[in-house]
Amino acid sequence: xxxxxxxxxxxxxxxxxxxxxxxxxxxxxxxxxxxxxxxxxxxxxxxxxxxxxxxxxxxxxxxxxxxxxxxxxxxxxxxxxxxxxxxxxxxxxxxxxxxxxxxxxxxxxxxxxxxxxxxxxxxxxxxxxxxxxxxxxxxxxxxxxxxxxxxxxxxxxxxxxxxxxxxxxxxxxxxxxxxxxxxxxxxxxxxxxxxxxxxxxxxxxxxxxxxxxxxxxxxxxxxxxxxxxxxxxxxxxxxxxxxxxxxxxxxxxxxxxxxxxxxxxxxxxxxxxxxxxxxxxxxxxxxxxxxxxxxxxxxxxxxxxxxxxxxxxxxxxxxxxxxxxxxxxxxxxxxxxxxxxxxxxxxxxxxxxxxxxxxxxxxxxxxxx
Amino acid sequence: xxxxxxxxxxxxxxxxxxxxxxxxxxxxxxxxxxxxxxxxxxxxxxxxxxxxxxxxxxxxxxxxxxxxxxxxxxxxxxxxxxxxxxxxxxxxxxxxxxxxxxxxxxxxxxxxxxxxxxxxxxxxxxxxxxxxxxxxxxxxxxxxxxxxxxxxxxxxxxxxxxxxxxxxxxxxxxxxxxxxxxxxxxxxxxxxxxxxxxxxxxxxxxxxxxxxxx
Lengths: 369, 214
Description:
The complex is a heterodimer of chains A (about 375) and B (about 210).
Chain A: E1 6-15, H1 21-29, E2 36-42, E3 45-49, H2 58-73, E4 81-86, H3 92-102, H4 110-113, H5 117-125, E5 130-134, H6 140-153, E6 159-166, H7 170-178, E7 202-209, E8 217-226, H8 239-252, E9 259-263, H9 270-283, E10 289-291, H10 294-297, H11 304-318, E11 320-321, E12 336-337, E13 342-343, E14 348-355, E15 359-366
Parallel strand pairs in A: 4-5, 4-6, 9-10, 9-14, 10-12
Antiparallel strand pairs in A: 1-7, 1-8, 2-3, 6-7, 8-15, 11-13, 14-15
Helix pairs in contact in A: 1-11, 6-11, 8-9
Chain B: E1 2-15, H1 24-27, H2 31-36, H3 39-50, E2 59-62, H4 68-79, H5 86-90, H6 96-105, E3 111-114, H7 120-132, E4 138-145, E5 162-171, H8 193-204, E6 209-213
Parallel strand pairs in B: 2-3, 2-4
Antiparallel strand pairs in B: 1-5, 1-6, 4-5
Helix pairs in contact in B: 3-6, 7-8
């Protein structure tokens, strides 16, 4: 059925670690985290969060990041492009600001409240051929990328703009705090001493195209699965994540031992990291390099899939494996962790995204065949 | 690209306030899970029980407004400086309803959730058509659950505060027997309109097939 190859040709991002993607990759390689501790969000408690350093409004950051990608692309406009958004909270920050000030819903604009708020704002700035928005918690933009891959590979579109975006909100900070999974310091994915995650905000915009360019990285496949286990706890043996990765390998038509590097979901929570490391260990006996980059970016929730896809694309373009940060004593010693940025021949890399509800998505990128 | 979808089975539910025909206790005997289900999850469970020809497989779900009740509970707790219920938070994500379906039915397949405002059910149909090109039978579902206190402060046009539609579909090479349009029923959320039209029309036809343009 597949007709077209899919390429990542342009991208842009903003997160707590950097205002651009090159800066983000440098920050990851030099262990410069954007996470800071705050005492103003949760009463009597420091929580470490990933806030974008420069103050911004949602309209401006959406416009400027997509405009950057449009400039890079050489396209005149997005009129033949499908917009695919991935977000966990959509316009929640806007709604909660109004509600917490006024204590009623009267001035909340439903168009700017729900997930579709992001596409709604972008369509006021650009013309797209069509748009669709995914919301599957922390896999939202990974699923948006997966959909973009499918519409191009099945010959429906030639250009797809994927936007992963989530802002910090009281709802998510207090919500994760209620689950007892927020760390008060920079997270330590895969470490024995890890004590939780860092909620963060970020935007990652990726242009997928059927046309190969000089710097293109190929998007080879996507795998999806559901844990069918628990709303917030992954299955301890990582069966769901393993199934998504296996399906991604099938989709890409490659073997497990072709994967050179895995950008793990690696949130720093005890449950996620132990389940995910079991899944990686059991599917990849050849021990590809593994790192989580969330100690630098925090967990940008619905934006994480697209942000980490950009990290994978840069790793392939530069042939550098991004390292873990804060990993001193790994809990699962069977994995091949990266401690410092490493020059290495990379052919295929895999990016994992795992979410509430047991929603799992794995993406595979590589050098064009 | 145009893709024809055969409607193998369909069901829909509408409630002016809340839908009062849900058989949740019978359909979800596990009390611990049943107590955690949101209204959207209960509607999804009921819809799944009402459709035929779907024995597990991929599910494409849509909701414009997501889990309003748990979201409102969280906002009120923050306003009142009260602790947030962990269950409310885990149940506040847009994929809550289908995640419970996957847990209850041990469905480990691809299950996606989209939210495209008024175009939600149209986009679920488009996504379903794209996925169905792979040759399998797919469950499409849209649910809205808007019955929360003071919803009238923002809701001026939706009469049916709870609603849901399910379609079991597969690709067909036969000619379309119905057109794709909005439901003529007034007071329903726009976000379920096209799928509701397909479900209503499917009841009248012997071989319901709809053409979806991607």
